[in-house]
Amino acid sequence: MLRAAAVLVLAGALSGAAPGARVAAQDSTFAVLQDTAFVVDRVVAVVGNQPILGSQIEEQLFTMLSARDAPPLATAADTAALRQRILDDMIAEELLVQAALRDTAVKVTEQEVSQGVAERLRSVRNRFTSEVDYQTELRNAGFQTPEEFRRFLTEQQRRTFLKNRLIERMQANEQIKSVAPTEREMRDFFEKNKQLFGQRPASVSFRQIVVAPQPSTEARQRAYQLADSIAKALRAGGDFATAARRFSADSGSRSQGGDLGWQRRGTFERPFDEAVFRLRPGTISDPVETVFGYHVIQVERVQPTEVQARHVLIVPETTPANRDSARALATRVADAARAGASFDSLQRAHHDGSEEREALNAPLDRLPEVYQSAIAQADSGAVAGPFELAGPDGRVKFAVLRLGAKRPAGEVTFSDVEEQLRRALSENLAQERYVDRLRASTYVDIRNP
C-alpha cells in the first residue's frame, strides 16, 4: 500500500529516482516471522483515537526518496532519523486536523475540496502522453482505478484545507503568534539544507514606471453604465457566471465565471478590498472603481480573515489616440529620468497602480522577453525604455526602467535567502509551539517501530 508515493510518482517527480530505492522502500513494509507469518502492517503511534501505521511511514519515506532532491541516506542511522522526522510530522498534522474538526468555526466545503482535487488531477494527468500510460502508473502506485486515486486525493485535500484554515484562524485570533528566529537558527537551517537551494540564476533589480493609456471621460462613463446595468440584471436574477464569461475583461477569472477563489484581506486593490469585505454573502455590489476599471462583485462565502468572491470587470475603452498620448508621456518620463529628475517623483506622478513598482533580484530568464531585451542593452544605474508591454485584448502600456544591480549566476548565499528564511522559520516556530500545546492536551502514544 504505497498510496502517498503515488502523488509523487504521478506528479512526475520520479524521473530521478533510483529503481533500487523503490524496491527497498516497498520491501521494508514486510517482515518474515518464523518462516510462515507475515507482518503486513503495524501501529507505530496513536494520536487521540487515530492510529498511524508503519505503512504510512514507508509511503512518505518512499515519496521523499523518489524526489529529485532526495536527502542522502548514507547509513542505517540516516534512514532511521528520516523515519523519525516523518513520524513527527505526521503526528503534528494529525493533531492539527483533529483540532480543526473540533473547531466549529473552521469550515471546509465539498466544492472547495472538489475544485482542489480537480486541479491536482489535471496537473497529474497532463504529465502523461496517453491514458494508457496514466492508468499503468496508477496501478504501479497501488491504485486499481482512477476513481480510487481521486478518493485518495480528496482525503488529502480535505486534510490540507482543514489544517490551513485552523492555522489561519488561530493566527487571526493571535493564538498563534509570530516567533522571531535567531540568526544562528537561520544559518544552521541554511547550512543543513544548502543543497536544496541549488544555483542562483543571473538576476537583476529594477524600478519601473508603467504608463497606461487613459480613457476619455465619455469612455469611463460608458463603462460605468454597462457595469451598473449588469449589476441590476444580476439583482433581478441573472446568472453571474454567464455575465462574467460574456462581459468580464479579467482573463484570469472570466472562464471560471468570475470566481476569484478564497482571498485574504489586503490582497486586492484597496477600493475592491474595502467593498468585498463589507458585502454580505449573496449580495451584488454597485460598480466599484479601481485602477483596472469597474467591478461588479458578489461575495459567496466568508471566513474570519478571508472571503470567496467573484466579479465582472468592465474596462473603459481606449483609442489609438489615447495610446499615442501614453507613448509620448512615457518618452518624456524617460528623458526626464535620464536628465536627473527624481525617479520616485516621476513614479508617484505617472505610474499605473495596477503594475508592480519594483523587482528585487528577479531571475533574468523568467522575465518577459521584452524586459530581457531592454535590460541587456543597459548597465546598472541606467534608464531603459520606454518599451511597449502587450496586454490582454490588444491593450498596451509603456514601461521605463531604472536598473539596479545585475548579478551573475552562482551559488545561493545566506544573504540571498535571509529574508525568506526569516519569514518561513518564524511561521514554522510559531506553528511548532501551537502543536506542542495541542500535544500536551491530547493522548499521543508512540510505539517502538
Tell me what the structure shows.
The strands form five sheets. Strands 11-6-13-12 form a four-stranded antiparallel beta sheet. A four-stranded antiparallel beta sheet has the order 7-10-9-8, sandwiched between helices. A hairpin with a 2-residue loop joins strand 9 and strand 10. The chain has three domains: 3-173, Porin chaperone SurA, peptide-binding domain (Triger factor/SurA peptide-binding fold, Orthogonal Bundle), CATH 1.10.4030.10; 200-214 and 319-411, Roll (Chitinase A, domain 3), CATH 3.10.50; 217-314, Chitinase A, domain 3 (Roll). The protein has 449 residues and is of the alpha+beta class. The two termini are 18 Å apart. 50% of the residues lie in helices and 19% in strands. Helix 2 runs antiparallel to helix 3 (54-66) and helix 4 (76-102) packs across helix 7. The longest helix is centred in the N-terminal third of the chain and has 27 residues, at 76-102. The model is unreliable at 1-38 (pLDDT under 50). The protein has 17 helices and 15 strands.
SSE layout and pairings?
Blueprint: H1 3-10, H2 19-27, E1 31-33, E2 37-39, E3 43-47, E4 50-53, H3 54-66, H4 76-102, H5 110-125, H6 131-140, H7 146-172, H8 183-192, H9 194-197, E5 199-200, E6 203-211, H10 217-235, H11 240-247, H12 251-254, E7 259-264, H13 270-276, E8 288-290, E9 293-303, E10 306-314, H14 320-338, H15 343-350, E11 358-363, H16 369-376, E12 383-390, E13 396-407, E14 410-411, H17 414-440, E15 444-446
Could you give a quick summary of the protein structure above?
It is built from 17 helices and 15 strands.
